[in-house]
Design brief:
The protein is of the alpha+beta class and 501 residues long. Helix content is 35%, strand content 23%. The strands form seven sheets. It has a seven-stranded mixed β-sheet with strand order 17-18-16-15-21-22-23. A hairpin with a 3-residue loop joins strand 15 (264-268) and strand 16 (272-279).
Amino acid sequence: MNARTVCIAALDQGTTSTRCILFDARGDILSLAQREHGQHYPQPGWVEHDAAEIWRNTFSVISEALARASLTARNVTALGITNQRETTVLWNRHTGEPVHRALVWQDTRVEPRVQELMRQGVGERVRDLSGLPPASYFSALKLQWLLDEAPGARAAAERGDLLFGTMDSWLVWNLTGGAKGGLHITDVTNASRTQLMNLAALDWDQRLLEIFRIPRALLPRIVSSSDQLGEIRMEPLAGVPIAGILGDQQAALVGQCCFAPGEAKNTYGTGCFLLMNTGAAPVPSCAGLITTLAYRFGDAPPAYALEGSIAITGALVQWLRDGLEIISSSADIEALAREVQDNGGVYFVPAFSGLYAPHWNAGARGAVLGLTRYATRAHIARAALEATAFQVREVLESMQHDAGTLLPQLRVDGGMVANDLLMQFQADILDREVVCPHVTETTALGAAYAAGLAVGYWRDLDALRANWSEARRWLPAMESSRREDLYARWRKAVGRTLDWL
């Protein structure tokens, strides 16, 4: 590649892997490197990651992406970071060693603490301040658990020896020097997922810290999503500025150029996340959604969003591959599901970690319903794909209720958009057009956009909008009576799983 090539690097630290992607000014991919990390399940409902492994993979994928493009740090204008949100890391500021494996956003071990908050009558107060309902999903109770259960952690925290962060904070700290002066920061989008930030003030809230028993000294400094934040001090990107940080779903919103109120996207990954830009004011949800930060660029006022979070979508396909072993690779599920014309009356509710939006039922558990001797593994595969589309409809209906507007179409991205059967069924069950952009790596692209805006690589939001182009569109083709019958049976299946525990 030409030595004069100038690009933006994006570090995409996700739930199952870490990737580095290099983008050019058109938003096209120059190079990509990816490495998976281990998933640890020490008990039912417990999900952990090794933060040290993720850091090692981060170093590796940066090196690989540059090598594949024959580029060096001189070709990289800035780095943007996007990350799995809510996953909680606690580490020693002097040694850089995590005190425990990271507790992943899917982890439900703190559910008894959620119930205790509700018994104390502080649930509405927490939601009013943070925009988030009491749930095991968010970081605050995970951090509380680590402080209470990791040997010596609370005493060390009170001495000022420990640091807390979501994955963005962990990576930035290591990239900028670690124990030798590394920056301890997080952006507003990630801070908004901890349940410790005041949604209006964009700062840690003392009332929330007291409710969750969190020492303020643990917490990173909250910064904008797009700004010149610090300089990388490690090879092979030494000297490159870190100029963007966004939680993964907010990054996809930016990558899809949803900058106007009412614009929305849905990302199909490990889970599914539907976000709608609501503009300069937070919109409280009455229908089971989350009020969150969309982004903040520099010193401009922040933008807010409504979000519907679905815990298990792509992860269900992985479970069919690794748990049931009915497919050998995730890509095989479409061909298997196409062996049958419909679901054969089978419905799969993947409540492995309870149900998130719009139900917020931690006691729900997964179930396959409607089984008869007629059912085959192909029917189960089809039901698994349809479960994703059904869950998205539930969230979309809630979002339209809260926003008071109908979405004319749904912009989609993420790994599962390659599944044509799923996308067509999604359009059918929503009775909406489903549109996929030319660049489907919108999460990484959003992080690149945030960094590029901060350093002038892209002039303004219009320059980003000019990059967006449509690659594929699915039109609804299902009869209304069939659509509503399928959805009614799905809702009935969900009802059977609620409060199983």
